[in-house]
Amino acid sequence: MPRLQILELPMEHDADPMMASSAPRTPFAVILDQVDEATADALRNHPEMLDQFAMKCGARTVGVFTSTVDVG
Q1: DSSP state letter for 25
Q2: pTM of the model as a whole
């Protein structure tokens, strides 16, 4: 069964400290591992689906792997 994991990426800071939204942000990537070959192939053939999912949930990217990935 596929697993969904969150990989936190290095924190970002806005360049303008006067901006109201200048609080640091922690970007993240969504990692799907243990995905079966058919599903992985379907997602590879339609990368726009992964891009839309990433945009909707606020992730920088979505990684899809058939093997097990330990994000720590």
Answers
A1: B
A2: 0.80
